[in-house]
Amino acid sequence: MYFLSKSVTPVEYFLTLDLRESQHFNGDVKIKVNVETETEQLRVHAKGFKYQQVKIDDKDVDFTWDENCDFLTLRSRDGALQIGDHEIYVSYSAPYSSNTLGINKDSSGIIFTHFEPIHAREAFPCFDEPAFRAPFNLTLRVREESTVLSNSLKKSESKVGPTRIFSMEPEKNHNFALDVALCCIKFFEKYFGSKLPLKKLDLLAVPKMIAGAMENPGLLIFQADSLLITTKTIFVEKIHIALTIAHEIAHQWFGNSVSISWWSDMWVKEAFATLLQHLAIDEIYPDWNIFDWFFSRFTRTAFKSDFVGGSVLKEIAPGKEHEAFNPLSYSKGATILLHLQQKLGKDTFRNRVRALVNDNAGNTITTEDVIESLGEKETLMPWLEQDGYPIVTVTVVNWVEDNLTIEISQRSSVCNFISNYH
């Protein structure tokens, strides 16, 4: 598995998706790219498409698809492409997904997307690596009765059909989620010292998805039981819902406005969002004592994960992106950040995090950038790089009247063992 070349970068996408067919969708995408070195081919990610047209600069090209790394390679018939701006055009079709990844259509007819970490390539040809950021222009063709939500505000609508109002069943209540979301936005705007980096924010509940929620910019998608409450919802479930909403809204700053360059730095966005969700809910609902929940759920998970080894910082190879989604990135990373906040003090920690986000808005960051901003390399790096945690044992060797002799030893928590279970 390989990375895309950094000498070709996307400048802007123009994507059209036709969602009117019942079993498949049609799409065409124009990608303006900048070529920094002369090349005879351009390469993007793509998976599962039937192609109608593939062009560079409005000219037909030869193309191949490598299923081992999902590379669609376009080769010019007119010799090498010169340094400068070029345009890729691909017209294609594909069946809807039924596993909640890519462009998914469920049994109720709801169509929604899930792209992280490597599933945007199943919706349209693209540069499907987090370091490649570029603006999108999206056009959707849908049936008249459809309600459409996207990441940003609508620019125009070519045809206005009859208006339809949809609501959840009476026993489903969205007011709690709305109240939490509004309070979280207010909290994070104050915490980061900057407005929500979006023109709007929608929260959408779907019956089923592979994750509990997804932080799409401007359009948060939740599995219904992670967003909506009912008359049967118990207190612990309300806590889970509130924390999930806070987590995804935190990502609008830490993860979307500022994102990571590659999945090896997964902890950067997930550990911060995990800590920030608790800080928000702790202020909104102080009587919940939410950090008791943090210690019981996240700190204990971090200790359990450390018991069998593994560090927060882990090299993630192309094709192994899903390995970045692990308890160490979330639980151990957040626990480390909480301890750092306790060391620095809340105000100092917040000010350094605020500077990190605001100074890098619209760009990607790495672990090195985080360490530089927080200024605590000697504190952070051992916890991020090393397996396990230290277990300190104090043994009383001798105690006679006022004379006490103790022996202190230290060992790693990482346990090497052979399991009898398979």
UniProtKB/TrEMBL annotation:
The keyword Transmembrane does not apply. The keyword Metal-binding applies. Keywords: Metal-binding, Zinc. It comes from Oikopleura dioica (Tunicate). This is Uncharacterized protein. Zn(2+) binds at residues 247, 251, 270. Binds 1 zinc ion per subunit. Residues 10-160 form the Aminopeptidase N-like N-terminal domain. Gene3D superfamilies: Neutral Protease Domain 2 (1.10.390.10), tricorn interacting facor f3 domain (2.60.40.1730). GO terms for cellular component: cytoplasm; extracellular space; membrane. InterPro entries: Aminopeptidase_N-like_N, Aminopeptidase_N-like_N_sf, M1_APN-typ, Peptidase_M1_aminopeptidases, Peptidase_M1_dom, Peptidase_M4/M1_CTD_sf.
